[in-house]
Write a structure and sequence with these properties.
It contains three helices and twelve strands; from the N terminus they run ββββββββαβαβββα. By secondary structure, the protein is mainly beta. One of its GO terms (molecular function) is porin activity.
Length: 203
């Protein structure tokens, strides 16, 4: 919606009229939702660019007083030419750098792990360093390093607080991908996270 003098702002989103037919009563029925978001960047100088993104989901299958909506991602960062980028906020874990390759279907894609599950997908408190084309020296070789701060019982993508399964202690991770030509890539990711006290007490 705006692109001038090194400043860009994009608006994106979708409305999904969705209905499940299932024997599972918890899933059967209307699943309509809407997503809306902004992403932008501003060029500080020829070597430094600031950027950020925000995405929000609103459920369309609830009553008007339910307030069933949440922030999917919200982060900001800086990109330093070939030296890479660093951002912080609610973002995707580095494991998703690889598992996202299967998350391409209109529905039911990338369902192995949901949000707020250690460093598997979307989560809070991610500090992420990314480097594309290995400092500009090797085309197609990308890597990322990530830290996630502890998330206890505060809310994740819901308004009811975090269950034990959605908490995490301090975590670290990294990913490495290499594009071989235009249609084939290989990659791997590894993460490790501590458990919260609540999780340890119920183990």
């Amino acid at each position: 919606i705006y692109n001038k003098d090194g400043n860009k702002l994009d608006l994106f989103g979708k409305v999904d009229g969705l209905h499940y037919f299932s024997d599972d009563k918890g899933s059967d029925g209307d699943q309509t939702y809407m997503r809306i978001g902004f992403k932008g960047e501003t060029q500080v100088n020829d070597q430094l660019t600031g950027y950020g993104q925000w995405e929000y989901q609103i459920q369309g299958n609830q009553t008007e007083g339910s307030n069933d909506s949440w922030t999917r991602v919200a982060f900001a960062g800086l990109k330093f030419a070939d030296a890479g980028s660093f951002d912080y906020g609610r973002n995707y874990g580095v494991t998703y750098d690889v598992t996202s390759w299967t998350d391409v279907l209109p529905e039911f894609g990338g369902d192995t792990y949901g949000a707020d599950n250690f460093m598997q997908q979307r989560g809070n408190g991610y500090a992420t360093y990314r480097n594309t084309d290995f400092f500009g020296l090797v085309d197609g070789l990308d890597f990322a390093l990530q830290y996630q701060g502890k998330n206890g019982s505060v809310s994740g993508e819901n308004t009811n607080g975090r269950s034990l399964l959605n908490q995490n202690g301090d975590g670290y991770g990294g990913s490495l991908t290499y594009a071989i030509g235009e249609s084939f890539s290989v990659g791997g990711a590894i993460t490790t996270s501590k458990r919260t006290a609540d999780q340890n007490n119920t183990a």
